[in-house]
Amino acid sequence: MENEIFKALADPSRRTLLDLLNASDGRTLNDLCAPLQMSRFGVMKHLNILEEAGLITTRKVGREKLHYLNAVPIRQIYDRWVSKYAEPWAIELTSLKNELERGTNMDNKPRHVNRIAIKATPDQVWQAITDPAKTSKFWFNCSIRSDWEEGAPFELWDQQGEKKAEGVILTLNPPHQLVMSWRLLSFPDAAGESPSRITWEIASHNEFPGVTLVTAVHDEFEQAAHTAKILENGLPIVLSGMKTFLETGSTLAGN
Fold first, then answer.
1. What is the DSSP code (8-state) at residue 15?
2. Do 174 and 156 contact (CB within 8 A), yes or no?
């Protein structure tokens, strides 16, 4: 998979497309064609290569197909090739920040979309997300607590007994979909904001048996800008940590 990522990044036009999505995420093909001096077919070809490498994801909203930057593979490249050799300040060079306030004519479209392929079953992924003994292995050492019923509250607690986040289970469809409201408590700027929403989508890969695609969508954060910035960087780490834990039994360093 790393070879596909490096191959995709080698082309300057594809890097330009990633830059465009970094500046303004959730864009249509027409939006992405305008700044590039190439045919619509050429842009589609580059987008397909980026999607096959996992560097972007797509979602249908109404009649439109929207394209999103997927930070998870870039985070994995960082974990393997950069963090071993660079000083901590280098993380600022690899953080991909979405512009939170931008004009759009589409209401309620997802904003931050991260996707990862994990060699595990959907049931194993579901258990990893909902079992406190497992969440502590990849969710910044925090354990999740809930009765796991629609309308029930949930809480995220660290090992020092501090509640870090809370919310409500909005949709529960094991092992395929979990929707939860989300409020961060451990960051002063985020603690007073309105709840946002995280949607977990879990599906078996169509082409690779034993592989599950996990998509985490964070949206409804128009009144939670600080939360959005924190989760924009945090959710790719959570997904990478989940993959490492389920596939190897180990944890990411520092998680």
1. H
2. no
Written as six digits, the tokens of 62 are 């109404």
* Same-domain status, 64 and 154: no
Cα–Cα nearest to 54, from 124, 3, 123: 3
254 contacts 128 by C-beta, under 8 angstroms: no
DSSP symbol at 147: -
Whether 97 is in a domain gets the answer no
Helix, strand, coil % in the chain, rounded to nearest 5 = 40, 25, 35
Task: Return the residue matching tokens 């985020």.
Answer: 190
End-to-end CA distance of the chain: 23
Beta-ladder partners of 179: 171, 199
For the stretch 198-239, pLDDT in tens is: 999 999 988 888 999 999 999 999 999 999 999 988 999 999
- Residue 206, C-beta contacts closer than 8 angstroms, at least 6 positions apart: none
Number of domains in the chain: 2
Q: What's the predicted TM-score (pTM) here?
A: 0.67
Q: Which amino acid is at 65?
A: K
User: Is 84 a member of any domain?
Assistant: no
